[in-house]
Amino acid sequence: MIDFYTWITPNGLKISIALEEFGLPYKAHAIDITKGDQFSADYVAINPGSKIPAIVDHETGITLAESGAILLYLAEKTGRFLPREGAARHHTIEWLMWQMGGFGPTLGHAHYFRTYNEGRAPFAEELFRKDTIRLYETLDARLEGRGYLVSDYSIADMAVWPWVSRFVRHKIDLSDFPNVRRWYLQLAARPQVKRGYEVPHFTAPVPLPPGV
């Protein structure tokens, strides 16, 4: 059994979707970051960084934080959604790191400046508007002629998809990125993704672009 500590954010959704995809038994614990639950003594004992998500795997005794590290751990634990060797393995890790190092942080800043604090920092808004478009263009180019980010559905797709699901907050029209739109809808139709999107509790259905 895995205890899973999370909230309704893209980084949390990565792991809830992954746990559903891997078919691993888990219990979700809501860490309401809007109320400061991440700073409670009990949670800091699990994750001193005071971020979500985190897991405690009672089968192996491993406690782990950081969504990218958790995805790699679950893939290696189960032998699924990460090729064991060769170029496909390295490219899967490459695109996971692309999400961790660029796509996620940039879109998080876009949320902050362009949605939650619009008009307060015009320079930052323009900076992250341009960089958000650049990253979507990169993702769209990668998905040209591909069903998934690498050869098969993988932890890289699970990492990137939840961030794309916030396209409204990014002020992105997915019709401008047809390969991203196709890929996004393909994953959105997966039952595991739908279930994972409702963890730790249901807030709204999976967002769909206009015309769907």
UniProtKB/TrEMBL annotation:
<protein>
    <submittedName>
        <fullName>GST-like protein</fullName>
        <ecNumber>1.8.4.-</ecNumber>
    </submittedName>
</protein>
<feature type="domain" description="GST C-terminal">
    <location>
        <begin position="85"/>
        <end position="206"/>
    </location>
</feature>
<dbReference type="Pfam" id="PF13409">
    <property type="entry name" value="GST_N_2"/>
</dbReference>
<feature type="domain" description="GST N-terminal">
    <location>
        <begin position="1"/>
        <end position="82"/>
    </location>
</feature>
<dbReference type="InterPro" id="IPR004046">
    <property type="entry name" value="GST_C"/>
</dbReference>
<dbReference type="InterPro" id="IPR010987">
    <property type="entry name" value="Glutathione-S-Trfase_C-like"/>
</dbReference>
<dbReference type="GO" id="GO:0016491">
    <property type="term" value="F:oxidoreductase activity"/>
</dbReference>
<dbReference type="InterPro" id="IPR004045">
    <property type="entry name" value="Glutathione_S-Trfase_N"/>
</dbReference>
<dbReference type="InterPro" id="IPR036249">
    <property type="entry name" value="Thioredoxin-like_sf"/>
</dbReference>
<keyword id="KW-0560">Oxidoreductase</keyword>
<dbReference type="InterPro" id="IPR036282">
    <property type="entry name" value="Glutathione-S-Trfase_C_sf"/>
</dbReference>
<dbReference type="Pfam" id="PF00043">
    <property type="entry name" value="GST_C"/>
</dbReference>
<dbReference type="InterPro" id="IPR040079">
    <property type="entry name" value="Glutathione_S-Trfase"/>
</dbReference>
